[in-house]
Here is the input.
Amino acid sequence: MSTPASQVVHLADPERARGRIGNCPNPESVLQYGPQLRMDVLDRLRTSSILSAAQFDKDLLCELSKLAAYLQLRKYPASKALEDKIMAAAFFEPSTRTRLSFESAMLSVGGNTISVADAKTTGVAKGESLRDIGQMFNSYADIVVVRHTEQSAVAEMTEYLRIPLINGGNGSDEHPTQALADWYALLKWRPEIAFGSIPEKFRINIGIIGTPGNMRTVKSFLTLALLFPENINHITIFSEMADPLGDEMRKLCDASPIGINFSRDLQGSLEYLDVIYMNAIAFLGDGYRFFDEEFQLNAQSKLKHDTVILHPLARGSELSVDLDTTVHNLYFNQADGAVWMRQALLLAIFDRVRNTIPDNLLI
Ligand code: CP
Here is the structure.
Protein backbone atom coordinates (compact mmCIF):
# COMPACT_ATOMS: atom_id res chain seq x y z
CA MET A 1 0.00 0.00 0.00
CA SER A 2 1.43 3.40 -0.95
CA THR A 3 1.83 6.21 1.58
CA PRO A 4 -0.77 8.99 1.18
CA ALA A 5 0.82 12.22 0.06
CA SER A 6 -0.35 14.09 3.16
CA GLN A 7 2.20 12.05 5.11
CA VAL A 8 5.11 12.84 2.87
CA VAL A 9 4.85 16.61 2.31
CA HIS A 10 7.53 18.10 4.52
CA LEU A 11 8.71 21.21 2.71
CA ALA A 12 10.22 23.71 5.14
CA ASP A 13 7.95 26.64 4.30
CA PRO A 14 4.34 25.71 5.11
CA GLU A 15 3.02 28.40 2.74
CA ARG A 16 4.86 26.82 -0.17
CA ALA A 17 3.87 23.30 0.86
CA ARG A 18 0.16 24.06 1.07
CA GLY A 19 -1.84 22.23 -1.54
CA ARG A 20 1.11 20.23 -2.82
CA ILE A 21 0.74 16.56 -3.43
CA GLY A 22 3.18 13.74 -3.85
CA ASN A 23 6.70 13.40 -2.56
CA CYS A 24 8.07 16.83 -1.56
CA PRO A 25 11.54 16.31 -0.10
CA ASN A 26 13.03 19.12 1.92
CA PRO A 27 15.58 21.28 0.02
CA GLU A 28 17.61 21.48 3.26
CA SER A 29 18.70 17.90 2.55
CA VAL A 30 21.16 18.98 -0.18
CA LEU A 31 22.77 21.50 2.20
CA GLN A 32 23.42 19.06 5.05
CA TYR A 33 26.74 17.82 3.61
CA GLY A 34 28.22 21.32 3.57
CA PRO A 35 26.37 24.64 3.33
CA GLN A 36 29.05 26.60 1.48
CA LEU A 37 28.92 27.22 -2.26
CA ARG A 38 32.09 26.71 -4.28
CA MET A 39 32.41 29.83 -6.41
CA ASP A 40 35.31 28.36 -8.40
CA VAL A 41 32.76 25.84 -9.69
CA LEU A 42 29.78 28.18 -10.19
CA ASP A 43 31.99 30.77 -11.91
CA ARG A 44 32.46 28.28 -14.74
CA LEU A 45 28.94 29.21 -15.85
CA ARG A 46 29.64 32.96 -16.13
CA THR A 47 28.43 34.21 -19.56
CA SER A 48 28.06 30.58 -20.72
CA SER A 49 25.55 29.17 -23.13
CA ILE A 50 23.90 25.95 -21.98
CA LEU A 51 23.61 23.61 -24.95
CA SER A 52 24.07 20.10 -23.56
CA ALA A 53 23.87 18.13 -20.32
CA ALA A 54 27.43 17.02 -21.05
CA GLN A 55 28.60 20.50 -19.94
CA PHE A 56 27.81 19.56 -16.33
CA ASP A 57 30.06 17.51 -14.11
CA LYS A 58 29.27 16.29 -10.62
CA ASP A 59 30.69 19.40 -8.89
CA LEU A 60 28.66 21.78 -11.03
CA LEU A 61 25.42 19.83 -10.55
CA CYS A 62 26.02 19.72 -6.77
CA GLU A 63 26.77 23.45 -6.44
CA LEU A 64 23.80 24.43 -8.61
CA SER A 65 21.54 22.16 -6.53
CA LYS A 66 22.75 23.81 -3.32
CA LEU A 67 22.17 27.28 -4.79
CA ALA A 68 18.70 26.19 -5.96
CA ALA A 69 18.00 24.93 -2.41
CA TYR A 70 18.94 28.31 -0.89
CA LEU A 71 16.60 30.01 -3.35
CA GLN A 72 13.79 27.52 -2.75
CA LEU A 73 14.12 27.93 1.02
CA ARG A 74 13.96 31.71 0.50
CA LYS A 75 16.75 32.21 2.98
CA TYR A 76 18.18 35.25 1.23
CA PRO A 77 16.31 37.86 -0.82
CA ALA A 78 16.95 37.50 -4.54
CA SER A 79 14.05 39.50 -5.87
CA LYS A 80 16.24 42.22 -7.43
CA ALA A 81 19.25 40.14 -8.46
CA LEU A 82 18.63 40.41 -12.23
CA GLU A 83 16.56 43.61 -12.37
CA ASP A 84 18.74 45.02 -15.18
CA LYS A 85 18.45 41.89 -17.37
CA ILE A 86 16.02 40.78 -20.06
CA MET A 87 15.44 37.15 -20.99
CA ALA A 88 13.93 36.23 -24.36
CA ALA A 89 12.01 32.94 -24.28
CA ALA A 90 11.90 31.91 -27.93
CA PHE A 91 9.73 28.82 -28.23
CA PHE A 92 9.19 27.53 -31.75
CA GLU A 93 7.60 24.34 -30.39
CA PRO A 94 4.81 24.09 -27.78
CA SER A 95 5.76 24.05 -24.11
CA THR A 96 3.99 24.36 -20.79
CA ARG A 97 6.72 23.85 -18.21
CA THR A 98 9.98 24.97 -19.77
CA ARG A 99 8.84 28.36 -21.03
CA LEU A 100 6.67 29.22 -18.05
CA SER A 101 9.18 28.02 -15.46
CA PHE A 102 11.99 29.99 -17.11
CA GLU A 103 9.77 33.08 -17.18
CA SER A 104 8.72 32.50 -13.57
CA ALA A 105 12.37 32.01 -12.58
CA MET A 106 13.48 35.21 -14.32
CA LEU A 107 10.62 37.26 -12.84
CA SER A 108 11.29 35.85 -9.35
CA VAL A 109 14.84 37.23 -9.40
CA GLY A 110 13.68 40.63 -10.61
CA GLY A 111 14.45 40.14 -14.30
CA ASN A 112 12.29 40.94 -17.29
CA THR A 113 11.04 38.64 -20.04
CA ILE A 114 10.00 38.86 -23.65
CA SER A 115 8.48 35.80 -25.25
CA VAL A 116 7.78 33.95 -28.44
CA ALA A 117 5.16 31.35 -27.59
CA ASP A 118 4.27 30.45 -31.16
CA ALA A 119 6.59 30.42 -34.17
CA LYS A 120 3.71 31.61 -36.39
CA THR A 121 3.85 35.03 -34.70
CA THR A 122 7.46 35.60 -35.79
CA GLY A 123 9.20 36.21 -39.10
CA VAL A 124 9.62 32.42 -39.36
CA ALA A 125 6.09 32.44 -40.81
CA LYS A 126 7.46 34.62 -43.65
CA GLY A 127 10.58 32.53 -44.13
CA GLU A 128 12.98 34.47 -41.86
CA SER A 129 16.06 32.47 -40.87
CA LEU A 130 16.91 31.53 -37.29
CA ARG A 131 20.30 33.18 -37.74
CA ASP A 132 18.60 36.52 -38.47
CA ILE A 133 16.24 36.08 -35.52
CA GLY A 134 19.30 35.34 -33.36
CA GLN A 135 20.87 38.58 -34.58
CA MET A 136 17.78 40.47 -33.35
CA PHE A 137 17.98 38.90 -29.89
CA ASN A 138 21.40 40.52 -29.46
CA SER A 139 19.61 43.88 -29.48
CA TYR A 140 16.51 42.94 -27.50
CA ALA A 141 17.74 40.69 -24.66
CA ASP A 142 20.66 39.66 -22.46
CA ILE A 143 19.98 35.92 -22.72
CA VAL A 144 17.75 33.72 -24.85
CA VAL A 145 16.09 30.39 -24.11
CA VAL A 146 15.28 28.48 -27.29
CA ARG A 147 12.95 25.52 -27.90
CA HIS A 148 12.70 24.14 -31.42
CA THR A 149 11.54 21.00 -33.20
CA GLU A 150 14.81 20.79 -35.15
CA GLN A 151 18.07 19.55 -33.60
CA SER A 152 20.07 21.99 -35.75
CA ALA A 153 18.11 25.08 -34.62
CA VAL A 154 20.29 25.86 -31.61
CA ALA A 155 23.51 25.79 -33.64
CA GLU A 156 21.88 27.87 -36.38
CA MET A 157 20.74 30.56 -33.97
CA THR A 158 24.07 30.76 -32.14
CA GLU A 159 25.81 31.65 -35.38
CA TYR A 160 25.11 35.38 -34.90
CA LEU A 161 24.34 35.43 -31.18
CA ARG A 162 26.57 37.45 -28.86
CA ILE A 163 24.48 36.70 -25.77
CA PRO A 164 24.22 33.36 -23.91
CA LEU A 165 21.71 30.84 -25.27
CA ILE A 166 20.01 28.17 -23.16
CA ASN A 167 18.78 25.12 -25.02
CA GLY A 168 15.18 24.57 -23.91
CA GLY A 169 14.87 21.40 -25.98
CA ASN A 170 16.10 20.94 -29.57
CA GLY A 171 14.30 18.22 -31.47
CA SER A 172 15.27 14.75 -30.32
CA ASP A 173 18.72 15.90 -29.19
CA GLU A 174 18.95 17.49 -25.74
CA HIS A 175 17.05 19.18 -22.92
CA PRO A 176 19.85 20.02 -20.49
CA THR A 177 17.94 22.19 -18.02
CA GLN A 178 15.25 19.51 -17.74
CA ALA A 179 17.99 17.12 -16.64
CA LEU A 180 19.16 19.68 -14.05
CA ALA A 181 15.59 19.82 -12.70
CA ASP A 182 15.35 16.01 -12.73
CA TRP A 183 18.52 15.66 -10.69
CA TYR A 184 17.64 18.50 -8.32
CA ALA A 185 14.49 16.53 -7.39
CA LEU A 186 16.46 13.30 -7.02
CA LEU A 187 19.20 14.89 -4.90
CA LYS A 188 16.62 16.42 -2.54
CA TRP A 189 15.10 12.94 -2.23
CA ARG A 190 18.40 11.06 -1.80
CA PRO A 191 21.27 13.59 -1.46
CA GLU A 192 23.79 10.84 -0.72
CA ILE A 193 23.72 9.87 -4.42
CA ALA A 194 25.90 12.93 -5.10
CA PHE A 195 27.12 14.12 -1.72
CA GLY A 196 27.72 10.88 0.19
CA SER A 197 28.49 7.22 -0.09
CA ILE A 198 25.76 4.58 -0.20
CA PRO A 199 26.64 1.10 1.10
CA GLU A 200 26.89 -1.37 -1.79
CA LYS A 201 23.70 -3.29 -1.12
CA PHE A 202 21.62 -0.08 -0.97
CA ARG A 203 23.01 1.54 -4.12
CA ILE A 204 20.36 2.94 -6.46
CA ASN A 205 18.83 1.02 -9.37
CA ILE A 206 17.34 3.26 -12.05
CA GLY A 207 14.88 2.24 -14.74
CA ILE A 208 14.52 4.42 -17.83
CA ILE A 209 11.50 3.83 -20.04
CA GLY A 210 12.37 5.16 -23.45
CA THR A 211 15.14 5.55 -25.97
CA PRO A 212 18.08 7.76 -24.96
CA GLY A 213 19.28 7.70 -28.57
CA ASN A 214 16.37 9.82 -29.79
CA MET A 215 14.44 11.22 -26.82
CA ARG A 216 15.91 14.48 -25.57
CA THR A 217 14.79 14.35 -21.94
CA VAL A 218 15.84 10.73 -21.55
CA LYS A 219 19.21 11.40 -23.18
CA SER A 220 19.99 14.40 -20.98
CA PHE A 221 18.81 12.59 -17.82
CA LEU A 222 20.99 9.56 -18.58
CA THR A 223 23.99 11.79 -19.34
CA LEU A 224 23.82 13.21 -15.80
CA ALA A 225 23.08 9.80 -14.23
CA LEU A 226 26.47 8.62 -15.49
CA LEU A 227 28.11 11.19 -13.16
CA PHE A 228 27.35 9.01 -10.12
CA PRO A 229 29.01 5.62 -10.64
CA GLU A 230 29.84 5.27 -6.93
CA ASN A 231 26.23 5.25 -5.83
CA ILE A 232 24.25 3.94 -8.79
CA ASN A 233 24.25 0.18 -9.11
CA HIS A 234 22.41 -0.45 -12.39
CA ILE A 235 20.54 1.51 -15.02
CA THR A 236 18.03 -0.54 -17.00
CA ILE A 237 16.66 0.81 -20.29
CA PHE A 238 13.14 -0.45 -21.03
CA SER A 239 12.47 -0.13 -24.73
CA GLU A 240 11.09 -2.03 -27.69
CA MET A 241 13.92 -0.81 -29.92
CA ALA A 242 16.85 -3.07 -30.78
CA ASP A 243 19.31 -0.20 -30.18
CA PRO A 244 17.75 2.34 -27.78
CA LEU A 245 21.10 4.04 -27.02
CA GLY A 246 22.37 4.97 -30.45
CA ASP A 247 26.09 5.56 -31.16
CA GLU A 248 26.67 8.69 -29.04
CA MET A 249 25.02 7.41 -25.84
CA ARG A 250 26.43 3.89 -26.28
CA LYS A 251 29.96 5.34 -26.23
CA LEU A 252 29.20 7.26 -23.02
CA CYS A 253 27.58 4.19 -21.39
CA ASP A 254 30.42 1.87 -22.48
CA ALA A 255 32.91 4.21 -20.78
CA SER A 256 30.94 4.19 -17.51
CA PRO A 257 31.46 1.67 -14.71
CA ILE A 258 27.68 1.70 -14.08
CA GLY A 259 26.01 -1.50 -15.27
CA ILE A 260 23.65 -0.75 -18.17
CA ASN A 261 20.96 -3.37 -18.84
CA PHE A 262 18.23 -3.65 -21.47
CA SER A 263 14.83 -5.18 -20.88
CA ARG A 264 11.24 -5.21 -22.07
CA ASP A 265 9.92 -6.61 -18.81
CA LEU A 266 9.13 -3.46 -16.82
CA GLN A 267 6.40 -5.02 -14.69
CA GLY A 268 8.65 -7.94 -13.72
CA SER A 269 11.51 -5.57 -12.83
CA LEU A 270 9.61 -3.13 -10.61
CA GLU A 271 10.69 -4.82 -7.37
CA TYR A 272 14.33 -3.90 -8.14
CA LEU A 273 13.88 -0.27 -9.19
CA ASP A 274 14.39 2.68 -6.83
CA VAL A 275 13.89 5.36 -9.50
CA ILE A 276 11.81 5.13 -12.67
CA TYR A 277 12.21 7.77 -15.37
CA MET A 278 9.39 7.69 -17.88
CA ASN A 279 8.18 9.71 -20.82
CA ALA A 280 4.99 9.98 -22.83
CA ILE A 281 5.93 8.50 -26.15
CA ALA A 282 7.86 5.54 -27.51
CA PHE A 283 10.13 6.12 -30.47
CA LEU A 284 10.24 3.20 -32.88
CA GLY A 285 12.47 3.65 -35.88
CA ASP A 286 11.34 6.82 -37.66
CA GLY A 287 7.98 7.09 -35.91
CA TYR A 288 6.57 7.20 -32.42
CA ARG A 289 3.50 6.10 -30.51
CA PHE A 290 2.22 6.05 -26.96
CA PHE A 291 3.58 3.34 -24.73
CA ASP A 292 1.77 -0.01 -24.60
CA GLU A 293 0.23 -1.31 -21.41
CA GLU A 294 3.41 -3.21 -20.51
CA PHE A 295 5.20 0.14 -20.02
CA GLN A 296 2.39 1.87 -18.09
CA LEU A 297 2.32 2.50 -14.34
CA ASN A 298 -0.58 3.00 -11.93
CA ALA A 299 -1.22 2.73 -8.18
CA GLN A 300 -1.68 -1.03 -8.52
CA SER A 301 1.75 -1.52 -10.13
CA LYS A 302 4.06 -3.62 -7.97
CA LEU A 303 6.43 -0.78 -7.10
CA LYS A 304 8.75 -0.96 -4.09
CA HIS A 305 7.26 1.00 -1.19
CA ASP A 306 9.78 3.84 -1.64
CA THR A 307 10.29 3.90 -5.43
CA VAL A 308 10.05 7.37 -6.93
CA ILE A 309 8.83 8.14 -10.44
CA LEU A 310 10.14 10.99 -12.57
CA HIS A 311 8.36 12.19 -15.69
CA PRO A 312 9.19 15.43 -17.55
CA LEU A 313 5.47 15.73 -18.45
CA ALA A 314 3.16 16.24 -20.32
CA ARG A 315 1.89 12.75 -19.56
CA GLY A 316 -0.25 10.33 -21.44
CA SER A 317 -1.78 7.03 -20.42
CA GLU A 318 1.63 5.66 -19.33
CA LEU A 319 1.39 7.46 -15.96
CA SER A 320 -1.92 7.07 -14.17
CA VAL A 321 -3.28 10.01 -12.16
CA ASP A 322 -3.96 7.62 -9.27
CA LEU A 323 -0.20 7.75 -8.55
CA ASP A 324 -0.38 11.52 -7.97
CA THR A 325 -1.34 11.22 -4.31
CA THR A 326 1.30 8.62 -3.48
CA VAL A 327 4.86 8.81 -2.23
CA HIS A 328 5.95 7.55 -5.67
CA ASN A 329 5.06 10.90 -7.22
CA LEU A 330 8.28 12.86 -7.48
CA TYR A 331 7.25 14.19 -10.90
CA PHE A 332 5.34 17.21 -9.57
CA ASN A 333 8.27 18.11 -7.33
CA GLN A 334 10.52 17.72 -10.38
CA ALA A 335 8.44 20.30 -12.29
CA ASP A 336 8.20 22.57 -9.25
CA GLY A 337 11.94 22.48 -8.54
CA ALA A 338 12.71 23.49 -12.12
CA VAL A 339 11.83 27.09 -11.23
CA TRP A 340 14.47 27.18 -8.49
CA MET A 341 17.08 25.35 -10.51
CA ARG A 342 16.53 27.73 -13.43
CA GLN A 343 16.87 30.72 -11.08
CA ALA A 344 20.16 29.27 -9.86
CA LEU A 345 21.37 28.81 -13.42
CA LEU A 346 20.46 32.38 -14.42
CA LEU A 347 22.20 33.83 -11.34
CA ALA A 348 25.36 31.85 -12.11
CA ILE A 349 25.39 32.80 -15.81
CA PHE A 350 24.97 36.50 -14.94
CA ASP A 351 27.51 36.29 -12.07
CA ARG A 352 25.00 37.43 -9.46
CA VAL A 353 25.51 34.66 -6.89
CA ARG A 354 27.83 36.91 -4.84
CA ASN A 355 25.14 39.63 -4.75
CA THR A 356 22.58 37.14 -3.42
CA ILE A 357 24.21 34.66 -1.04
CA PRO A 358 26.10 35.97 2.06
CA ASP A 359 29.91 35.95 1.90
CA ASN A 360 30.26 33.47 4.78
CA LEU A 361 28.49 30.85 2.64
CA LEU A 362 30.80 31.30 -0.36
CA ILE A 363 34.20 29.70 -0.74
N1 CP B 1 9.35 19.06 -19.46
C1 CP B 1 9.07 19.77 -20.56
O1 CP B 1 9.94 20.00 -21.40
O2 CP B 1 7.79 20.20 -20.63
P1 CP B 1 7.25 21.25 -21.70
O3 CP B 1 7.27 20.57 -23.04
O4 CP B 1 5.87 21.59 -21.24
O5 CP B 1 8.17 22.42 -21.68
